[in-house]
């Protein structure tokens, strides 16, 4: 199927449309992940960067900048910045989650060690700040450093909410906004800011990224209970890590006394047996928790499309609208 | 003893002189370590920030700014930035080194967990970038984001050089410049930059911080073999972690065949017995490695003083010269 074919994935069609700029972003990433003194740094980074991630976040920056008619050189720096922040976060996440697999390969903390993942992550954070400083645009510096703080805050909140059955949907949304949506919304917002667009347009770009990121994360959390090998998700990871994601929160909210005792045992106490995951899924089904989670993902996707609909017409806009459908397609 | 007494420690006299500004810095630190959503963040940060660290690095920024006649408000932001970068680094270091004690108290990774230390460190990094962005000065943003990258690079280099007997004095110097001196030199340099001083003065401030930081770290590494309870150092920590610090590198360089076999066993293979540390110290003594390390620390201290001597006369300059003596006083 040709990439111009409207049946191709919107993500691949965006990549084809932004090919020249993406090539420039990849060149910046390769150049800036180098280290004069410490060869361990590019080794660890390359393992992750070249593992075939979708480059979704940098593509959002490039797409937003082009949608806004930006003609300068700095959207490339900003897209690389966004990917570096994302990669740094993944390295630290894998340490925090004690993960063994990412993108179908062993994680860096397993191949090297936790120490390397922590320090190379720090290096990439610093590199991302160097890159954004080169744009000379103080407003994008504010947006991206705010996003970095919000991401870390969301991750800490997730950590303290884990294993805690009193976690509310409000707290869940704060976690999701932090750990995922903050970088999506910063990625689209800075595209409008460097193009010097009016405030309402910049705000709309933010809203699109925010809603897209929330939809994306809810789907990810749903697939942890609803997925199959085909979706590339490891079903049950969040369950084993006792994370309070939306399907669990919704099921707990409807639990009777016996069910509550089950959740206390598996999530709060962490005493899990082989058949607990299927039972958890059955309880979610019984209370419509999976269906309600899916509806929430679709509603955020709709919000993203509605925001994008307010922006200038054209091929990029249509693709970004399709992208909002695509992130929820796995649960459609 | 009064703080005006010339026999008081230069560090305490500086603190007295900069009391108003240091109070403002501490207020910014307390305000910015807060988190609306994640109370774990201020808990972990306070544990470290309020454990009675000397605030040496932020004081360097305040002192440099005042020496340069700066009258604006941003030296306070920059000093808080420097302290946040330092605190973030300590949190991550303790995870990397698997430390149990810092400043005489259990480390955060022990009191909470490694996850909290990693994520709260990330939060403080992000906060530091927010703070420096508020100065609106792109040159200080470049200097401080470069320093953050150099620090991480130095830490990774230290990690890969550990246990490797072929580590040279050149590599050691790169590690020290990275993990310690980069933040000292950035701290003093930005003081001159925000005061808009001429290039040669800014460069001299950098040189002072660089030499001071190197002297400081060499002394720290020396005390790991030469210290006593009185110096507050845990003798033997670096030895147990098999770090290639200057005393080891110098002793290995002079080792005969039997001695080399000893170093291979304890450092490369990590097979350490109870009496290995005294034996290592005896070998260092035999080859004058501790004395040579001490001489190197003194020579960097002298370089720092020489640099400071080229800056405008006055009380601050005299105190910064005394400070260069003070950092090596523990091995004088």
Automatic annotation (TrEMBL), chains A, B:
Keywords: Magnesium, Metal-binding, Transferase. GO terms for molecular function: all-trans-octaprenyl-diphosphate synthase activity; metal ion binding. GO terms for biological process: isoprenoid biosynthetic process. Its EC number is 2.5.1.90. The keyword Ribosomal protein does not apply. It catalyses: 5 isopentenyl diphosphate + (2E,6E)-farnesyl diphosphate = all-trans-octaprenyl diphosphate + 5 diphosphate. Its cofactor is Mg(2+). InterPro entries: Isoprenoid_synthase_dom_sf, Polyprenyl_synt, Polyprenyl_synt_CS. PROSITE patterns: POLYPRENYL_SYNTHASE_1 (PS00723), POLYPRENYL_SYNTHASE_2 (PS00444). Transmembrane segments: none annotated. Belongs to the FPP/GGPP synthase family. Supplies octaprenyl diphosphate, the precursor for the side chain of the isoprenoid quinones ubiquinone and menaquinone. This is Octaprenyl diphosphate synthase. It comes from Citreimonas salinaria.
């Amino acid at each position: 199927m040709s990439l111009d074919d409207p049946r191709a994935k919107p993500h691949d069609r965006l990549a084809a449309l932004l090919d020249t700029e993406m090539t420039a972003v990849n060149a910046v990433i390769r150049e800036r992940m180098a280290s004069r003194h410490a060869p361990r740094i590019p080794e660890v980074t390359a393992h992750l960067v070249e593992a075939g991630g979708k480059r979704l976040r940098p593509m959002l920056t490039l797409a937003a900048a082009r949608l806004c008619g930006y003609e300068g050189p700095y959207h490339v720096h900003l897209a690389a910045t966004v990917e570096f922040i994302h990669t740094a976060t993944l390295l630290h996440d894998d340490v925090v989650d004690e993960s063994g697999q990412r993108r179908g390969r062993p994680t860096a903390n397993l191949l090297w060690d936790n120490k390397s993942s922590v320090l190379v992550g720090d290096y990439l954070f610093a590199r991302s700040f160097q890159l954004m400083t080169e744009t000379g645009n103080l407003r994008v510096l504010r947006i991206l450093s705010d996003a970095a703080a919000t991401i870390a805050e969301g991750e800490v909140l997730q950590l303290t909410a884990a294993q805690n059955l009193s976690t509310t949907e409000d707290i869940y949304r704060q976690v999701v906004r932090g750990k995922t949506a903050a970088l999506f919304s910063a990625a689209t917002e800075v595209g409008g800011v460097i193009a010097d667009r009016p405030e309402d347009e910049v705000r709309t770009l933010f809203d699109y990224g925010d809603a897209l990121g929330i939809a994306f994360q809810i789907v990810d959390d749903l697939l942890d209970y609803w997925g199959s090998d085909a979706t590339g998700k490891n079903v049950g990871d969040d369950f084993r890590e006792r994370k309070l994601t939306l399907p669990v929160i919704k099921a707990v909210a409807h639990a009777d006394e016996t069910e509550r005792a089950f959740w206390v045992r598996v999530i709060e106490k962490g005493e899990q047996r082989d058949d607990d995951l299927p039972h958890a899924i059955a309880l979610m089904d019984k209370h419509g928790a999976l269906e309600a989670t899916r509806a929430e993902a679709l509603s955020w996707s709709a919000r993203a499309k509605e925001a994008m609909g307010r922006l200038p017409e054209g091929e990029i806009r249509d693709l970004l609208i399709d992208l909002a459908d695509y992130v929820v397609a796995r649960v459609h």
